[in-house]
Amino acid sequence: MYRHLADDLAAFPDLLESTRRFAEQVLAGLDNRPVARQAAVVPPDPLPRAGIGLHGALDRFADRWEPGFSGSAGPRYLGFVTGGATPAALAGDWLTSTFDQNAASAGDSCAADLERETVGWLRQAFGLTDEHTGAFVTGATMSNFVGLAIAREWLGRRRGVSVAQAGVQALGDIHLFSGTPHSSIVKSLSMLGIGRDRLQLVPVQAGREAVDVGRLAEALDALDGRSAIVIANAGTVNTVDFDDLRAIASLKERYPFWLHVDAAFGGFAALSAHHAGLLDGLAEADSICVDLHKWLNVPYDAAVQFTRHRDLQVAVFANSAAYLGAPTDNPDYLHLTPENSRRLRALAAWFTLTAYGLDGHREMVERNIASARRLGERLPTIPGVRLLAPVRLNVVCFAVPGNVADAVRAIAETGEVFATPTVYDNTPALRLAFSNWRTSETDEDRIFAALHKALT
């Protein structure tokens, strides 16, 4: 055995303890670490030849790279929609690497059964039916990709072909409709060979990002009975607006279409009795995307996809090889997702759900919503700042005086908070997304003070 490997194996317990202490120092310093930073250029090292062992690697990392890492795991990182990692989720993630299970099949481990249990818990949390089955994937983009891949196969079945076998060209014209689709939807259409240009935008309600259901009905009616895919939102990125899922689902009584719901982070509104009604009709969806490294606060990368059509999912993702075995009534995950080799990313979600339950995660969701609303009330007191939409859930979308790019830089330079730019209703804007389990009212005060300083 190579000498550094042999030395590290002999000293493994001490090395793990050193790594734990290093991680502990990082977590203890999150409150003071800059939330975002413009990292200095680090000259690249040559490819290591002899190596320096794990202790040496820890020291090298601490010297060269750790100072440039941001505090994105902390309570005042409000860019994108980024959760943190609850203590239980972090423990589950460490153990995921410790056990290093390939959760592709059930042939040599109970890892796949743990994933099925966790998917079942999430199905219940979102109020879905037993008909909905699911699997873990890497994020919202891949979750949307899987849902739309199954929808593509459904279109083919309606036209007497299998896209999985014959290719997307066998479909001919493809009709897709959405009001305010997330960029990952458009990216997925590109990867699926459907094409970005095939997506037809349906007008939204005045002053909203929610689709006008009447105009959607008109678009479907114009197809004269041809099948389509409808992509609905359960929480838009800019304002967390929700399409009327119940009204959209009711259109299926008149028109043949596949209903895909992008509930990347808005799906977690189901945990709150005050907001669960926003998801009325979700259980009627044919496929659903939910991102978990957002509001479930598990480490990157983790999402789940659901569908009511597992047979079509297997048709798309089945992997034919003698050593893998054919799909059964309870197919292995390698027949359900793009990856053959799959990290047991369900373990972090299993740990945080087991440790804190629905009650703990409900409190987290409602606390984040309250933080967003309180900050939304305070922001207009800053000269030149105005809200562009009501604070519906956990995102605050607002216009700022001057140039948005300058505002983003000024805010980031405070080291106290990070915000991402956007455009809403043709207005350049900033958005703040509250989704971290650590965020407190004290953090709200620090966030507001930093924004006030940067924008005045």
From TrEMBL:
Origin superkingdom: Bacteria
Keyword Lyase appears in the UniProt entry: yes
Assigned keywords, A-Z: Decarboxylase, Lyase, Pyridoxal phosphate
Pfam families, alphabetized: Pyridoxal_deC
SUPFAM superfamilies: PLP-dependent transferases (SSF53383)
PROSITE patterns: DDC_GAD_HDC_YDC (PS00392)
Positions in coiled-coil regions: none
Required cofactor(s): pyridoxal 5'-phosphate
Family from the record: Belongs to the group II decarboxylase family.
UniProt name for this protein: Pyridoxal-dependent decarboxylase
